[in-house]
Amino acid sequence: MKIYTKTGDNGTTSLFGGTRVPKHHIRIDSYGTVDELNSWLGLIADQNIAKDYQNELQAIQIKLFTVGAILATEPQKATLKNGKERLNIERISNDDVLYLEMAMDKMDEVLPQMTHFILPGGHPIVSYCHIARTVCRRAERKTTILYENEPFDETVLTYLNRLSDYLFVLARKLSMDLGVEEIKWIPEKRD
After folding, report:
1. Each residue's pLDDT tens digit, 131-155
2. Is the pTM of this model over 0.70?
3. Distance in angstroms (rounded) separating the CA atoms of residues 117 and 101
4. Which of 30, 105, 111, 184 is the most buried (most CB within 10 A)?
5. What whole-number distance in Å separates Cα of residue 152 and Cα of residue 75?
6. Residue 13 to residue 93: CA distance in whole angstroms
């Protein structure tokens, strides 16, 4: 099977179920941004970080493929003519959200209390986490637009929201692990 089909040469692509839409459609933009996020997570996992974090990131990457499949499926095409669901896969669940929360709680136990906003950076690995966090926030913004127009399981929105929090906490924890000082944002006062 060839990877190229030439069917998108005119600026359209197919959703799961066959409907063709412009490549700038909000549905494509939503799952495309999730795909971009997934690539950033792969880059973070490829760094010299603890195996536990690599495993967590890989588990999240797998869930993001599920998110992408959900977003790529139009609600009116979600059920086949025989009554079965088009996506015969596990969905994003509250347990998946809880997984992120538990991972954050574990990292938070050893982190110093945050008293100021923190400037992104300090080490390339930490910066990758912050970039992934902002891409996650963009994915969340895109999916909320899609959700307003064509609702899907709200747990997807919750998952993306929690994932951006996870990436922030991971950035802080990796700063600690790497011995990098967090740079606090302390705005200058006006005279």
Report:
1. 999 999 999 999 999 999 999 999 9
2. yes
3. 21
4. 30
5. 7
6. 28
